[in-house]
């Protein structure tokens, strides 16, 4: 009689095969759990991730360091311990910052401080800085009477009664008008653009008054502009609309319009795993007992879908990062915190905003760019950060303290204007890089 304890050729013993499949699945589960813990540790800053942690992701890291540097610069200037340099007669960059008084908080000083702190004399001379106090009565702004405002700016811009209807602008400052704010914001942006256009600099940068500029922002911006110009020529185009220095990763998740592509690749991955296992079993008979039909089904039908699910759960920004350098961003770029425009495009934008009269700058700009198929550039890593949870809309007006949020859903849209990658910057590394590009004069 045959020995039933021996394995017959081509006929694997089912209990042994099942046991092998079970051991492989348990090993996979252990590996999978470890991957989940790794993803939790690495993806908590990705707003499109299932592991996103709003308790810590919105906390300031590099921003707090940079804000401290900017505030110290303003303070040292007020104490007359810092010498001031002004713009040359032919600057390459006009920077315009409009500011209005905010309830309980103020970012204007920090914004100006981070823009100017660390600049070499040569870099500062290449910039014409316009600080726009957007009040019909400028004394309403807490910074208007402070010495740094007038000494650090190349131009303090106020409403000129010869150019604007002061009574109409005053009507836009009422509480009822501020509740919407779409007209005055667009009016101020246009007014500031025209002021920069008069400087005749090749490029105009418009910043909101609640941004943080990284150390070395100037040389990175100049490099990005050169790249944008070169890439535009390579495309056979003669013009581009803007260079974006800030965007939030909030809108770069697994967008629904791309799901047919994602699903196709997922199905393809499952099929490839199944085919690879089946092919290996056919080419290597000794693998027949290890790659049983049940084991192949486990790998392709259970393990692979679980890994695909974890891939998507980790978040798009984590798994498919936005490419570094200057690249086109025709979709999902938000918002208007920091734009650079070629001077040649400023008249087009002024005409556009004046024709619209009411609306949000970013929305109007994007609608125009979509209609005209305009080239829009963005730089990664970003160069400017938004105030985020430091926004005045995230302040408890009763206690005048920053609110602590328990979930992402409790954050306002303004508070979610945040670039999480910006906070990973290293202050010492950025300062060293800045010194290198400025010839060590920082």
From TrEMBL:
A single GO molecular function term of this UniProt record: glycosyltransferase activity
Domain of life: Eukaryota
InterPro entries assigned to the protein according to its UniProt record, in alphabetical order: PGAP4 (IPR029675)
Transmembrane segments: 21-39, 259-279, 291-314
UniProt entry keywords in alphabetical sequence: Membrane, Transmembrane, Transmembrane helix
GO terms, biological process: GPI anchor biosynthetic process
Membrane in keyword set: yes
Cellular compartments per GO CC: Golgi membrane
Protein name, entry field: Integral membrane protein
Organism: Penicillium arizonense
């Amino acid at each position: 009689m045959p020995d039933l304890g021996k394995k017959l050729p081509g006929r694997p013993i089912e209990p042994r095969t099942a046991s092998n499949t079970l051991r492989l699945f348990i090993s996979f589960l252990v590996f999978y759990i470890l991957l989940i813990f790794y993803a939790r540790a690495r993806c908590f800053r990705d707003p499109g991730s299932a592991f996103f942690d709003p308790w810590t992701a919105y906390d300031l890291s590099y921003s707090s360091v940079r804000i401290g540097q900017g505030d110290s610069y303003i303070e040292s200037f007020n104490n007359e311990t810092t010498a001031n340099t002004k713009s040359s007669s032919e600057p390459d960059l006009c920077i315009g910052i409009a500011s209005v008084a905010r309830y309980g908080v103020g970012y204007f000083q920090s914004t100006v401080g981070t823009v100017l702190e660390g600049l070499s004399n040569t870099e500062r001379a290449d910039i014409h800085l316009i600080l726009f106090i957007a009040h019909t009565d400028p004394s309403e702004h807490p910074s208007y009477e402070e010495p740094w405002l007038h000494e650090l700016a190349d131009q303090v811009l106020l409403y000129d009664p010869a150019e604007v209807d002061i009574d109409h602008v005053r009507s836009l400052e009422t509480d009822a008008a501020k509740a919407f704010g779409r007209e005055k914001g667009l009016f101020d942006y246009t007014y500031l653009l025209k002021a920069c256009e008069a400087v005749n600099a090749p490029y105009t940068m418009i910043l909101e008054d609640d941004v943080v500029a990284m150390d070395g922002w100037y040389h990175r911006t100049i490099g990005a502009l050169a790249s944008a110009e070169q890439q535009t020529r390579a495309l056979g185009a003669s013009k581009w609309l803007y260079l974006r220095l800030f965007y939030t990763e909030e809108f770069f998740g697994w967008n629904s319009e791309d799901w047919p592509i994602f699903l196709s690749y997922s199905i393809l991955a499952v099929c490839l795993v199944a085919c690879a296992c089946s092919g290996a079993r056919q080419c290597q008979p000794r693998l027949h007992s290890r790659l049983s039909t049940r084991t192949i089904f486990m790998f392709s039908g259970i393990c692979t879908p679980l890994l695909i699910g974890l891939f998507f759960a980790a978040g798009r920004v984590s798994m498919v990062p936005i490419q570094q350098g200057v690249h086109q961003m025709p979709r999902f770029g938000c918002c208007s915190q920091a734009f650079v425009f070629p001077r040649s495009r400023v008249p087009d934008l002024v005409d556009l905003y004046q024709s619209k009269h009411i609306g949000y700058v970013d929305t109007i700009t994007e609608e125009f760019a979509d209609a005209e198929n305009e080239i829009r550039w963005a730089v990664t890593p970003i160069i400017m950060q938004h105030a985020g949870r430091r926004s005045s809309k995230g302040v408890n007006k009763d206690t005048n303290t920053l609110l602590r949020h328990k979930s992402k859903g409790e954050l306002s849209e303004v508070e979610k204007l945040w670039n999480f990658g910006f906070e990973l910057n290293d202050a010492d590394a950025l300062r060293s890089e800045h010194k290198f590009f400025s010839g060590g004069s920082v």
